[in-house]
Specification:
Blueprint: E1 4-10, H1 14-25, E2 32-39, H2 45-55, E3 60-65, H3 71-81, E4 86-89, E5 95-96, H4 100-111, E6 116-123, H5 130-134, H6 139-142, E7 145-148, H7 150-155, E8 164-166, H8 167-172, H9 184-196, E9 199-210, H10 222-235, H11 241-254, H12 261-266, H13 273-285
Parallel strand pairs: 1-2, 1-4, 2-3, 6-9
Antiparallel strand pairs: 4-8, 5-9, 7-9
């Protein structure tokens, strides 16, 4: 088995961190190392990590920043210290299906893509995804995947916030762009696809993303809009006119704007029709769809 490095940035979420780590330890794929970068946590995170390190010698690398430097820098620190052939990530408030890593490694080694990813599900209560988490898939089911091309990715981030790729590729591309205030993951996937070609995505829900609205989140902040602006500027040379119109509609949706009809008409996107529909629904009915 090829070693898989799993990086986890964390700050002041020791209880959620345990859930995330336990989902990695429960993987059907055995050859995994876990790298946790602690963003100057003021709770019992150091003690939690000390306990894991004692129970699982050689399994964990624990890094700690004396001052918060951002999740993007924390991910990059883990990547710098990783030893795996492959690398994937996990946010401290999310968790994996037990067969996620097995599925991604098999897809990667079968299809030789730029990266492999799975479908994902947002949840606000863990009970909402309990049945999906506990389902067991056969090898034939896990082998089912769809191609994820660069043009498709340039319309929207279909990969989610985590993928699996070769560690050497992440390092060659310089890791996550720490100058991006948000959308660092989306930016990374575009750079991987632009350099190494088409990706693949499992047809199954094997990643679960905590969407608890009570906690501060980038997707609920002004950083999200700023990140999208930088994303468009950075990748404009790769985008068609239709893709750029689609991203302007995405910005309208993120900013809860209700632009004039003339502006909506100028930005109609055929390939990204869903964002156009969302803008129209918000314009006429005041309903903002995520």
């Amino acid at each position: 088995m090829a070693l898989v490095s799993v990086y986890i940035p964390t700050r002041n979420r020791s209880a959620l961190l345990r859930r995330a780590i336990d989902s990695v330890l429960a993987q059907s794929y055995a050859d995994i190392e876990v790298l946790v970068c602690d963003e100057a946590s003021e709770d019992d995170t150091p003690e939690v990590m000390a306990a894991y390190i004692e129970r699982f010698p050689g399994k964990f690398t624990y890094l700690r920043n004396d001052t918060p430097q951002g999740a993007c820098r924390a991910r990059n620190r883990c990547i710098e210290h990783a030893s795996g052939t492959y690398v994937t990530g996990l946010d401290d408030d999310d968790f994996f299906h037990p067969q996620r890593v097995e599925c991604l490694v098999n897809l990667y080694e079968t299809h030789a893509p730029s990266f492999a990813c799975t479908r994902f599900r947002y949840f606000q209560n863990e009970d909402q995804v309990a049945m999906l988490r506990d389902r067991t898939y056969s090898p034939a089911e896990l082998a089912k995947a769809d191609k994820l091309t660069l043009p498709a990715q340039l319309y929207a981030n279909h990969a989610g916030n985590q993928v699996l790729t070769e560690l050497s590729r992440m390092r060659e591309l310089g890791g996550f762009d720490e100058a991006m205030p948000s959308w660092q993951d989306y930016d990374m996937w575009i750079r991987l696809a632009a350099r190494y070609g088409t990706a693949v995505r499992s047809r199954h829900l094997l990643s679960f993303v905590d969407d608890d609205r009570s906690r501060a989140r980038i997707r609920n902040s002004s950083k999200r809009a700023e990140g999208s602006e930088r994303f468009i500027a950075k990748h404009a040379s790769l985008m068609s006119a239709d893709q750029q119109r689609n991203h302007r509609n995405i910005q309208f949706v993120m900013n809860r704007e209700r632009p004039p009809l003339g502006e909506i008409a100028r930005n109609v996107s055929l390939g990204g029709y869903k964002s156009t529909v969302k803008v129209l629904i918000h314009k006429f009915f005041g309903v903002a769809l995520g």
